IclR family transcriptional regulator C-terminal domain-containing protein (Streptomyces violaceochromogenes), 244 residues
Amino acid sequence: MGSVQRAMRLLETVAVHEYGAPAKQLARETGLALPTTYHLLRTLVHEGYLRRDKGLFFLGEAAERLSSSGARQKRRSTVVDALAHWRDVLGVPVYYAVYREGEIEVMCVSDTPGNPAVEEWADFRETGHAHAIGQCLLSQLDEEARRDHLDRYPVQPLTPYTVRDNHSLLRRLERIRRMEPVTERQEYALGAVCAAIPLTLGTTAATMAISLPAHQADRLLPAARQLQTEIGRMLGSLALSISM
């Protein structure tokens, strides 16, 4: 354990030296004996956590991969915490999804036993026409991208309330006003209503959404509006995180 701690101390010290540092300086700053420092530096270089160039030590590819992975985990944690906060404030399940490389991806869902998320009984990726998440994401695409998606995942009836065909869906998408919540009522699952809020993330189509039991449909739009306000307050700090 002591060797691990000393190695981590060395890595942390190297990390603060953007232009590298020699072994003697690292030994001095970490308080390690010079022979110990040399031994640990050689091991860390061999394993790829450090690299040596002209007598100076820099972070290696292995350490940079760890840093990148840690940053991604931190961003994801930020989103998870935000969704959990909104779930508790609104008393509804909250979803986060993006449209990436031609696919609908639900990245995170936050619910509770008392307010469960809608069960994914039909693949969300293939049924974007039927749920608010998919309709919201498709509404942010251009016409060519929408038609490409529907060529791969054509409209199919899931409930008596599902839009009937591709043409009807495209007309509906054209009528959706920019930055307005998108709602659907029992189109994906009987007994459930949903609303999705479009997010502006550069060129990435993204959305936060909520769902409610159908008998609470009167809460849907007020809760969606409240979520939109909450997102607006935090979007600046979340902008990088929600690109996960």
